[in-house]
Amino acid sequence: MATTIPGPLSGPRQDLRLILALGVTQVAGYGALYYAFAVLAPEMTKSLGWAPEWTYGAFATGLLAGGLVAPFAGRMIDRFGTRVMMSLGSILAAASLYALSQARDPVSYFGAMIALEMVSTLVLYDAAFTALTEAHGKTARRAISKLTLIGGFASTLFWPLTTGLLTIVDWRMIYQLYALGYLVLCLPLHLLLLPRRRPVQAAEAGPVDKAAPAAAETYLTGPARTRAFLLLALAFSLQGFVVSAMSVHMLTMLQGFGLSAAVAVGIGAMVGPSQVAGRLVEMLFGMNLEPTTTAWVSATLMPVGFALLLLGSTTASLAGLFAIAYGISMGLGSIVRGTVPLRLFGPAGYGAMLGKLSAPGLLIRAAAPLAFAVMVERAGSLPSTLLLVALSAAAASALFALSRFHAATLAPAPRP
């Protein structure tokens, strides 16, 4: 019996509501579930009375658990749709934040952190990108760019907000406030505004984009698909180590170069607007570029940014240029994470594909905060930053190789 594929959401007003709703929930999600930890970790360590390795080790363990369940979460999202799964995720995320605020021993702390990172697979970018793909099918690239444009404000809002709240209340109360705020804000948006339809399983949905190149109809199969998957997974894994380490240790690393805490926070807050600026430029001028080209060009900015930091060290202006380059690269990287798999592999099974791409680098990303903390403590900021340069440069090289390979795959065979 033939399967009926429901039509996409239509109309600019519906599109705007969906993007704005997901934008708000992504800012709240990344801010509460991810960025707040970078500010609160030192206070949590003092309050719990153990070594920093325990604090960051639980975070690493949570990332590992999140990576392990990501493929399963992707399949569940494909099966039941983002409206159901992201609404459920909103409830579980709020409960996990509250459980973290109540942790008083290693067992409860590790358990809450593991639950938090596992649940995040149901509510952060991979799930949101799948929601947009449900609504737009193969033409979701512009919607993904618009969403990440809003999501870039998460660190800009939540680093200063969390720092300010910490002068008034303790870290436990902050997580309780974030738990309540996340539930009240995100659950209604996910429940009421996400696509009310079954996701696409084995066919493409979405309107035909007459402006899209004809090659957009072609997706990789067989050995070419496997090779592209491996290159993409390698690049995402290496970038994942860098971003995971920096999301927790950026402020500490900047202070390690001799910058004051206030200056470090100010420079760190520049990352968010830089993400937004990069995404805005891509949305306005980069839509005609192949996503794989955007991928390697944006990835190259990351090692360039770290090189500027090494050259500037205690100079706030060069450290600011680092934040701009890093932020643009990270911002475009979020778009790439959604658009390149869609371009290479198509919308069918999109959620599961994003989960599979997350899985190979789970150990690398999970180990990053603790490994980088140990390296900074024992080797110092300079060798640690050199490692980030090497890893981010290797990721850019893998994406460049993917772009060349994809271009060669699409090129017509020479005539005899």
Description of the structure:
This protein is mainly alpha-helical and 416 residues long. It has one domain (14-194, 220-409): Growth Hormone, Chain: A, CATH 1.20.1250. It is 79% helix and 0% strand. Helix 1 runs antiparallel to helix 5, helix 7 (153-166) packs antiparallel against helix 11 (271-285) and helix 9 (222-256) packs antiparallel against helix 10 (261-269).
In a few lines, what is going on in this structure?
With 416 residues, this protein is an all-alpha fold.
Name of the CATH homologous superfamily: MFS general substrate transporter like domains
Counting DSSP E segments of at least 2 residues, the number of strands comes to: 0
Q: How much is the radius of gyration in Å? A: 21 Å
Task: Report the span from N to C terminus.
Answer: 44 Å
The global form is globular
Which regions have little confidence, pLDDT < 50, spanning 5+ residues? 1-9, 198-216
Written as H for each helix and E for each strand, in order along the chain, the element string is HHHHHHHHHHHHHHHH
How many domains comprise the coordinates? 1
Please tally the helical runs, counting DSSP H or I stretches of 4 or more residues: 16
Quaternary organisation of the protein chains:
single chain
Q: What fraction, in percent, of the residue positions are helical?
A: over 70%
* Beta-strand content bin: under 5%
Based on secondary structure, the structural category is: mainly alpha
Largest sheet: none
The CATH topology label is Growth Hormone, Chain: A
CATH architecture: Up-down Bundle
Rounded average pLDDT: 85
CATH class designation? Mainly Alpha
